[in-house]
């Protein structure tokens, strides 16, 4: 059917407090137009009669508080209506956090920090996005803290970071980040080096306090913390560590009841709430996860195809203009440790490496540190991808979002790769 919106597609009529769940096909995206009433996508209000395009594979819900009509151009069988959504619960949570924010304005405390926890694919990022959007719509600019190295919602996957959110998310593109604080971890799961992960989480908490603690508007706004889906063993310890470092006011546990009980026991004095997983949240296959990660790294360099295209630069530098370091694990046998020292007490450190062919396709971060000893405790200024190493010419070629020169020379090597196939 073609409606007055001009979009060819299927018309869906939604009554109040229901949502239309949509899955875009993997080879082509989906388009939609709100033609009557009011509706939102994960907390961002849709503009009537505007055509929104979502990328291939996107999964989304058009939710309405009061009823609406929406035209969707996509496979009809991949869209269905549901009246069992957690949106009223989410809104109530938002009201409680807003009241706490107001209360804290009269105290010496920072604004409330809300940590969203749960295994993978339970809707953690979606809940953070909804709450952030509602907070902005109420006139406060909150901080998004992204501790999920698997997704990279603030910078590229493999990093953690924070960003003040001053605009609602774009329905299809999410939040657009300008000047985030970023720390480079270099793996997609904290289990690869949980000591380093915890160290970076502490650094991030400290840096946020330094940057925003003195600005009243940011200080009282509070933050939403999106966490990793790794909630067992050391992953659980890292979650508790993050909750303590950010002095969380409340932890929302999605889906996982045991995690809820454990956190209640281990974080006395913190409000711990349990929400069931929304029926709309879809589990992603390993391949889908990989492709999302690739797309996220690609868009760091190339921007978003139809929306904000970027043109990265290819920089050729002599070897002496860069200093590349890698993280070294503390795998010293305990027999070689000084008396009284345990491997547990040893902090991760870095050691210098020479450019080599094996580095091609690997991601390097530009450390804000000038002193190698400070690399692991310093934030990243940006990321580069090694596209060539010439041992004959002693030159390294880097894909960079900025033209030469590099702002700093200390680069941190990571196991993360990106195939530049533009
Ligand atoms: P997590 O952060 O726990 O891994 P996400 O929030 O990323 O989970 O959600 C997983 C996927 O489910 C995402 O693609 C998201 O867009 C989708 N999703 C979340 N809520 C809904 C919903 N109500 N309807 C349709 N898709 C949804």
Task: Tell me what the structure shows.
The chain is an alpha+beta fold and about 425 residues long. It is built from 7 helices and 25 strands. Strands 13-12-11-14-10-15-16 form a 7-stranded mixed β-sheet, with helices on both faces. Strands 19-24-23-22-25-20-21 form a 7-stranded mixed β-sheet, with no helix packed on it. A hairpin with a 4-residue loop joins β23 and β24. α1 crosses α2. The radius of gyration is 23 Å and the shape is globular. The model has no long low-confidence stretch (mean pLDDT about 90). Adenosine-5'-diphosphate (ADP) binds near residues 60, 124 and 282. The site of adenosine-5'-diphosphate (ADP) has 18 residues, from β2, β7 and α2.
- Poorly predicted regions are none
Query: What Rg is obtained from the alpha carbons, in whole angstroms?
Result: 23 Å
Output mean pLDDT.
Answer: 91
Number of helices: 7
Any descriptors?
about 425 residues, alpha+beta, seven-stranded mixed sheet, 7 helices, globular, binds adenosine-5'-diphosphate
Care to give the gist of this entry?
This protein is α+β, with helices and mostly antiparallel strands and 422 residues long. 23% of the residues lie in helices and 30% in strands.
Present the secondary structure layout.
Layout: E1 10-14, E2 18-23, E3 30-37, E4 40-41, E5 44-45, E6 51-54, E7 59-64, E8 68-73, E9 79-82, H1 87-104, E10 113-117, H2 124-137, E11 143-146, E12 159-164, E13 181-184, H3 194-212, H4 216-221, E14 223-226, H5 233-245, E15 250-254, H6 257-266, E16 271-275, H7 286-302, E17 303-304, E18 308-309, E19 313-318, E20 323-328, E21 349-353, E22 362-367, E23 380-390, E24 395-400, E25 410-417
Parallel strand pairs: 10-14, 10-15, 11-14, 15-16, 20-25
Antiparallel strand pairs: 1-8, 2-7, 2-9, 3-6, 3-8, 4-5, 4-7, 11-12, 12-13, 17-18, 19-24, 20-21, 22-23, 22-25, 23-24
């Amino acid at each position: 059917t073609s409606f007055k919106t001009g979009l060819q597609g299927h018309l869906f009529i939604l009554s109040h407090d229901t949502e239309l769940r949509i899955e875009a096909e993997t080879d082509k995206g989906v388009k939609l137009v709100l033609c009557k009433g009011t509706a939102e996508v994960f907390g961002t209000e849709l503009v009537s009669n505007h055509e929104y395009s979502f990328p291939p594979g996107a999964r989304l819900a058009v939710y309405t508080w009061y009823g609406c009509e929406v035209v969707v151009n996509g496979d009809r069988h991949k869209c269905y209506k549901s009246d069992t959504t957690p949106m009223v619960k989410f809104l109530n949570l938002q009201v409680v956090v807003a009241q706490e924010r107001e209360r804290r304005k009269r105290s010496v405390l920072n604004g409330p920090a809300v940590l969203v926890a749960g295994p993978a694919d339970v809707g953690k990022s979606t809940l953070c996005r909804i709450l952030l959007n509602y907070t902005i719509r109420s006139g406060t600019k909150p901080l998004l803290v992204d501790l999920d190295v698997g997704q990279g919602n603030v910078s590229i996957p493999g990093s953690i970071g924070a960003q003040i959110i001053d605009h609602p998310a774009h329905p299809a593109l999410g939040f657009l980040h300008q000047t985030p604080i970023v720390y480079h971890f270099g793996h997609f799961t904290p289990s690869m080096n949980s000591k380093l992960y915890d160290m970076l989480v502490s650094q991030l908490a400290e840096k946020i306090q330094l940057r925003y603690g003195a600005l009243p508007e940011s200080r009282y706004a509070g933050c939403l913390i999106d966490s990793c889906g790794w909630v067992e063993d050391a992953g659980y310890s890292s979650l508790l560590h993050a909750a303590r470092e950010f002095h969380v006011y409340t932890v929302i546990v999605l889906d996982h009841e045991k995690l809820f009980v454990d956190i209640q026991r281990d974080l006395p004095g913190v409000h711990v709430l349990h929400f069931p997983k929304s029926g709309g949240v879809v589990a992603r296959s390993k391949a889908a996860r990989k492709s999302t990660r690739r797309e996220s790294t690609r868009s760091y360099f190339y921007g978003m195809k139809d929306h904000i295209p970027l043109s990265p630069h290819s920089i050729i530098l002599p070897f002496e203009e860069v200093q590349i370091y890698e993280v070294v694990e503390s795998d010293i046998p305990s027999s070689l440790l000084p008396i009284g020292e345990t491997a547990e007490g040893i902090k991760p450190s870095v050691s210098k490496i020479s450019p080599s062919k094996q580095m091609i396709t690997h991601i390097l971060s530009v450390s804000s540190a000038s002193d190698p000893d400070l690399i692991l405790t310093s934030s990243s200024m940006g990321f580069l991808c090694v596209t060539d190493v010439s041992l004959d010419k002693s030159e390294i070629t880097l894909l960079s979002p900025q033209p030469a020169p590099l702002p700093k020379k200390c680069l941190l090597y990571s196991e993360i790769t990106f195939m530049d196939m533009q």
